[in-house]
Amino acid sequence: MALAGCGGHPKDVLTPVADTSPQSPKVDMLIATTRTRSTVPGEMFNGERALAPAFADMTISIPPSKVRKEGQVAWPKRLPSNPATDFATVQADDLNVDEAKKWLSASVRKTPDGSVLVFIHGFNNRFEDAVYRFAQIVHDSGVHSAPILVTWPSRGSLLAYGYDRESTNYTRNALETLFQYLAKDPEVREVSILAHSMGNWLALESLRQMAIRNGRLPGKFKNVMLAAPDIDVDVFRQQIADMGKQHPQFTLFVSRDDKALAFSRRVWGDVSRLGAIDPEQAPYKKELEDNKIKVIDLTKIKSGDSMNHGKFAESPQIVQLIGQRISEGQTLTDSRVGLGDQILVATTGAATAAGNVAGLVLAAPVAVVDQDTRDNYAGHVNNVAGTKGAQPAVKHCEEGRPTPNCGRQYPRPSASAAAQ
């Protein structure tokens, strides 16, 4: 917990404000969620599970580039948000199912290619985290597809890993229903999916269900982009097999120094996580090649994120470069792409542009250890752990390489001390 920064941002930032910066770009998105409607002003949806999916239409104002780097979310330092300097919600309307369908129809007709981009966030995300990060992705990438955010019930706490994972399972049927609707809608000619971290499990499971139910996946599902997927490699192998020979083009983004996935590997019985494999090693290289899965290896990219779980967000140069290359239809084939950073394109050939989703940029929704987790930690200590006894050491213990304090038990902190 000590890795968490001292900074933070106000919570419950989604109360709409006046559009006092009309020149600022706007991102209008459809929300599909299995979260429960919140009674807290500015939160909109919380981390609990709803009995039925809900929908909303939200418009987010993005501050000018002179006050924000690409790949960053400009969280307000105080409320209400100022559209001239902050990400700001300027519209937030609840929709019923029929209204959501009308929104989709109108938005798809505005696209040049009848395309839809579905984004599925990862572990430890509040609703506002997912909304603002997706707005950033859509704006910075220059994507022209109709944007749909699928947000599942995450409690936004590091200590809620098990709850979050079960929430993705809880959301599988709802996401498959959305996929089935997009497949049948004649106005939608192309569907691309972007998932991050634990959201990859939800995306792949829903696609797998759809393929088994229908006998195959529809041809209009062109691209599935898997960013730092927190998935057991053995399970992924079976998911791909269950989808059959006709499946989307998968593009996998990996980093072998991803500490969040290293932690997940220990939680799940020391089985490799898909987002942290070495794609040049057996058996992965041949399997990726056989399934025509493109891989971009970011292991050598330097990151300001101590967990190395969101490298795209940490390098504006890479964000800009990948967005430009893909938007112009160029392939990422050169292992030295310039601008002082190095991307290793480790695949079975060239890592081609992910379809015609223009300028797609991947950026992690939030740091795994963030201020919200720090805020929640004291409550978890009181409610779950108590105030006495010992807690397991959090020092990393490498196999065969004992480190100082490895395995040591530490006194359990008080709730107030833990929060600090």
Explain this structure to me?
The chain has 420 residues and is of the alpha/beta class. The chain is 31% helix and 18% strand. It has helices at 97-110, 127-141, 161-184, 199-214, 233-243, 259-267, 284-290, 311-314, 316-327, 371-385, 415-419; strands at 26-37, 45-61, 88-95, 115-120, 146-151, 190-196, 221-227, 249-254, 294-297, 390-391, 410-411. A nine-stranded mixed sheet has the order 3-2-1-5-4-6-7-8-9, with helices on both faces. It has a two-stranded antiparallel ribbon with strand order 10-11. Helix 3 packs across helix 4. It is globular, with a radius of gyration of 21 Å. The N and C termini lie close together (9 Å). The model is unreliable at 1-7 and 318-420 (pLDDT under 50).
List keywords for this structure.
single chain; alpha/beta; two-stranded antiparallel ribbon; disordered N terminus
